[in-house]
Amino acid sequence: MTTLDKSPMTEEDYLSQAVTLSEALPYMQRYAGETVVIKYGGHAMGDPELAKLFAKDIVLLKQVGINPVVVHGGGPQIGNMLKRLEVETNFIDGLRVTDQATIDVAEMVLSGSINKSIVANINAAGGFAVGLSGKDGSLIRAKKLHRTKKDPESNIEKVLDLGFVGEPEFVTPHILDTFLESDIIPVVAPIGMGANGETFNINADTAAGAIAAAIDAKRLLMLTDIAGVMDGDKNLIQEMNAVEARAMIADGTISGGMIPKIETCLGAVEQTEETPGVNAAVIMDGRVPHAVLLEIFTEHGAGTMIRGLNA
Ligand SMILES: Nc1ncnc2c1ncn2[C@@H]1O[C@H](COP(=O)(O)OP(=O)(O)O)[C@@H](O)[C@H]1O
Ligand SMILES: CC(=O)N[C@@H](CCC(=O)OP(=O)(O)O)C(=O)O
Asked: According to the lineage, what is the superkingdom (predicted)?
């Protein structure tokens, strides 16, 4: 899936390319001036060639007047670094239990190597990207995540201690607003800052959803390593609503890292008094070359869509 076809183009291929370009026009018009938040998952960024294509797509969006905001993950890369440092790591419901050693590594990997490699790829593709973490400009103010889980044996709700895992308390879009009015493409690492400057490890899906809601993004694209949400028979679900999603989490059809993804999408499309809600969130395969362009500019967008009331 990650190899690119380099066979010579036929006349038919050229024509079909021209048709595709021409068909992109209504989508360009629909999205002109709008903001799209793209969550770039750690699994989706594994292949360096695909990472370059992703960067090119982001530059293209900005070039045609759409405002991309990239929020990235890096779970597998944090895992690799922890392994090299011989620090054990565990997940509960898709969230990494984060002690002091783990938060130090998570911040280093997310705000450092990963953030800068995405920024470098975008800039090498002719864009003007600036890397930030949630600490910069107090972009993501966070607090310790409080999570409870029902013990299946006793049926008692137990408090889970995930250490320095944070949840966004509020997003300060000021710095993003400034960038979105310019040619700058923000690339955000999912590290949050507590009221006293503490560092929190935030699931990247959660961070992307909070940012999308705070800046009234038109779309939230969640790039991952699977075609979308699968049902119990491993068939792709093209569209789902909140009731269906909650039932699939409860019966275990949706598990692990897909749980925060779905919860994020549901939260992002929800309308509140403060925010009109993102129009639609899509969980899609980031390993498909040009996945972002296909989703935004063609009918061929794939994956699982969760719509808001305004979609
Ligand atoms: N019902 C489901 N449909 C699709 N994927 C699922 C489902 N339930 C669990 N998953 C798992 O969720 C994973 C995606 O989450 P995660 O690994 O955290 O991705 P990312 O690193 O992109 O955030 C999939 O690769 C799959 O193993
Ligand atoms: C709390 C928590 O789980 N944080 C994540 C942050 C990175 C992330 O979410 O990366 P992906 O999107 O690649 O999974 C972690 O430590 O792995």
From this structure: Bacteria
Please give the structure tokens belonging to residue 229. Answer: 């949400």
In percent, the amount of the chain with pLDDT more than 70 equals 94
Integer Cα distance of 199 and 196 in angstroms: 9
Q: How far is the CA of 157 from the centre of ligand 2 (A)?
A: 25
Mean pLDDT of 13-22: 83
ipTM: 0.95
Residue nearest to atom 16 of ligand 1 (CA): 257
CA R_g for the chain: 19
Q: Considering only CA atoms, which residue is closest to atom 22 of ligand 1?
A: 224
Pairing of strands 166-171, 185-189: unpaired
Instruction: Indicate whether 1 belongs to any domain.
Output: no
Binding-site residues, in ranges, read 74-75, 96, 201
Enclosing domain of residue 276: 31-242+255-307
CATH of residue 195: 3.40.1160.10
Residue 177 has pLDDT above 70, yes or no: yes
Bridge partners (DSSP) listed for residue 143: 167
In a domain, 22, yes or no: no
Instruction: Say which ligand is closest to the CA of 110.
Output: 2
Question: Which pLDDT value is given to residue 1?
Answer: 41
Count the domains in the chain: 1
Does the CB atom of residue 74 touch ligand 2 within 6 A?
A: yes
Question: Is the overall model pTM greater than 0.95, yes or no?
Answer: no
| Token pair belonging to 279 | 């129009």
